[in-house]
Amino acid sequence: MPGTVSKKYVFNNNADGMYPLVLTIIEDLGQINEHTAFKVKMILVELITNSLKHSGQGDTTIAITASGNIITIKKTDTGNGLAVRCGNNLLEWPLPGKHHAGKIITVYNDSSAVLKAKLHNNCMLLFFIEETEETDPIDINSLAEHFGLMIITRACDKFEYGFDIDTCTNSFTVSLTV
Amino acid sequence: MILVTNTHKDALIAGIQVKEANLTVSDGFKNEMTALIDQDNKYIVVDFEQVIYVDSSFLGALVSALKYAIANKAEIVVAGLNKDVSGLFQLIRLDKAFKIYVSAAEAADNKAQ
């Protein structure tokens, strides 16, 4: 159990600082088991990689809270909105129109799984995975080449993305049970 | 240069020379792998022994290289994964796409058999 932890970190979007920051956060979480540490590490690497790719000059903030047996990681940045394709359309935030709540979109799929997202509204969605029946041998050509969202979704219990219209801020909130 | 290569029996061992296999080196890695396949190497062992972690960009480049290898009737296997890297391969099922060996030497021996 990590005990009670509440800390914020600022990442300056310099790739050299990524792994040292990940290790610092793991250390600050204190007593967590090896399996949880692995998952937190993978989640942090992908959240920070997302910032390196998309957030431009602005800083990235990472807030960690641990209470009881739940660890929550929230990353915010002011870069480009999360690039999610729905079919051939690249979604832009906030999503246009109304009646989004409950709608499910397919983000990407390959021979082992389908990454989907359920829209809460026009500014927030929840990722989840539907496993597909494995083929033997695996169809290599159908494999995805973008794994970031898949890694985070597989490593946690809950993964949400939100776009704040007022501040044009992206937030990625991930929680996992120790 | 991200990869240093040497031959061992019938295998080409491509050792990753960076500790952090992330988006800063993924394009370079993909280009170097493509060049090795174009040079008609048919069994390439990507050795992760020096690597402490990989990110999704690097894994994407590795999968892209694998697709290119298959199109050119070549094979890519991986070796020397530490616990985190091995765990990541399992997490996103890449252990089903790549043959994984404990060491590059073991991977090369497997080719020789």
UniProtKB/TrEMBL annotation, chain A:
SUPFAM superfamilies for the chain: ATPase domain of HSP90 chaperone/DNA topoisomerase II/histidine kinase (SSF55874)
Superkingdom to which the source organism belongs: Bacteria
GO molecular function: ATP binding
Gene3D superfamilies, sorted: Histidine kinase-like ATPase, C-terminal domain
Keyword terms, alphabetized: ATP-binding, Nucleotide-binding
InterPro entries: HATPase_C_sf
Protein name as annotated: ATP-binding protein
Originating species: Mucilaginibacter terrigena
UniProtKB/TrEMBL annotation, chain B:
UniProt xrefs under Pfam families: STAS
GO molecular function: anti-sigma factor antagonist activity
Domain STAS: 29-111
Protein name: Anti-sigma factor antagonist
Lineage of producing organism: Bacteria, Pseudomonadati, Bacteroidota, Sphingobacteriia, Sphingobacteriales
